[in-house]
From TrEMBL:
InterPro entries: AAA+_ATPase, ABC_transporter-like_ATP-bd, ABC_transporter-like_CS, P-loop_NTPase. SUPFAM superfamilies: P-loop containing nucleoside triphosphate hydrolases. This is ATP-binding cassette domain-containing protein. Signal peptide: none annotated. It comes from Jatrophihabitans cynanchi. GO terms for molecular function: ATP binding.
Length: 310
């Protein structure tokens, strides 16, 4: 069975709400695919449809070419983290995993392996009801790994993790992908996915907005702009704007220049004897790339009247 998730033409309505509107994408082996979109875009519904918790009105979702419901030992094919709060509070983390393992014909050895992999050793014998959100995420991750699946699908796994936990999770997800697994990870915060996801599936209002490599999206959002650092900001702005460039202030002593290459900017500043300390091709962050892609997709956006006055 190949490590992939394939979603084709999914449509799903909840009453008058169209949650999924003809959504298609593929998650491939060997990389972390970020699954992102504004609130209400349809990420959770897509994941619920993939595992059969919601039925699609139209379209199909398959794991390695087969519908989830047809998999005999599903945990050995697809590991999921969908709702970290869904556990029996009086059971210890280890007992929760033992119970899950038992249902799939797996032994206690495998449980202890995933407890170690998820960094849960010190808490495994405590009641799960007393776990912090971060510990619940680790327990959810341990459960997802139980069947050593080729495909992982994790809904907001960074939620509730402290900065150290976020760094750990990033490395962990990269390592799982490096082993050849297909890893789909939903997130609200692009900064969490930076340095982790190499591919992004962006959705908005139940439709596909972008399905592309992270490097490609960042290059497109960087748009040939130049970042310039100078103490003589107003002089630089005047000279560059005079030649038709669009110049905006980006922070205290930095300008972003669109419409001219780095060489042209250097030549103009030298000619006008304007000093500068740094000049470089602008590299957009994943956050900027995402904001550009989803500008028209936000379901709940503050109207101009609601925005705080400056
Ligand atoms: N059980 C349900 N009943 C009614 N409407 C629902 C239900 N589940 C989801 N929706 C609606 O479907 C749309 C998609 O919701 P979904 O939770 O899939 O989005 P999401 O991208 O996961 O959002 P978030 O980032 O806020 O978690 C939303 O408009 C939501 O209100």
């Amino acid at each position: 069975m190949d490590a992939s998730i394939e979603v084709a033409g999914l449509r799903k309505r909840f009453g008058a709400t169209v949650a999924l509107d003809g959504l298609s994408f593929t998650v491939t082996a060997g990389q972390v695919t970020g699954f992102v979109g504004p609130n209400g875009a349809g990420k959770s519904t897509t994941m619920r449809v993939i595992v059969g918790l919601d039925a699609a009105d139209e379209g199909s979702a398959t794991i390695g070419g087969r519908p989830y419901a047809s998999l005999r030992h599903p945990l050995s094919h697809l590991g999921t983290l969908l709702d970290a709060a869904a556990l029996q509070p009086s059971r210890s983390g280890r007992n929760h995993l033992l119970w899950l393992a038992h249902s799939q014909g797996l032994g206690a050895k495998r449980v202890d392996d995933v407890i170690e992999q998820a960094g849960l050793q010190s808490a495994a014998r405590r009641k799960a009801g007393g776990y912090s959100l971060g510990m619940r995420q680790r327990l959810g991750l341990a459960a997802a790994l139980l069947g050593d699946p080729a495909v992982l699908m994790l809904d907001e796994p960074f939620n509730g993790l402290d900065p150290e936990g976020i760094v750990w999770m990033r490395g962990f997800l990269r390592a799982l992908a490096a082993e050849g697994r297909a890893v789909l990870v939903s997130s609200h915060l692009m900064s969490e996915l930076q340095d982790t996801a190499t591919h992004l599936v962006v959705i908005g209002r139940g439709q596909l907005v972008a399905d592309a490599g992270v490097a490609e999206l960042i290059a497109a959002a960087s748009g040939g702009r130049v970042t310039l650092r100078t103490a003589a900001r107003s002089d630089a702005m005047r000279v560059l704007a005079h030649s038709g460039a669009t110049v905006t202030m980006s922070d205290r002593d930095a300008l972003t220049v669109a419409g001219l290459g780095t060489g042209e900017v250097v030549a103009m500043l030298n000619e006008a004897a304007i000093p500068f300390t740094e000049i470089s091709a602008h590299r957009a962050t994943l956050e900027e790339a995402y904001m550009e892609l989803t500008r028209d997709q936000v379901e709940f956006r503050a109207t101009a009247a609601e925005e705080p006055s400056r």
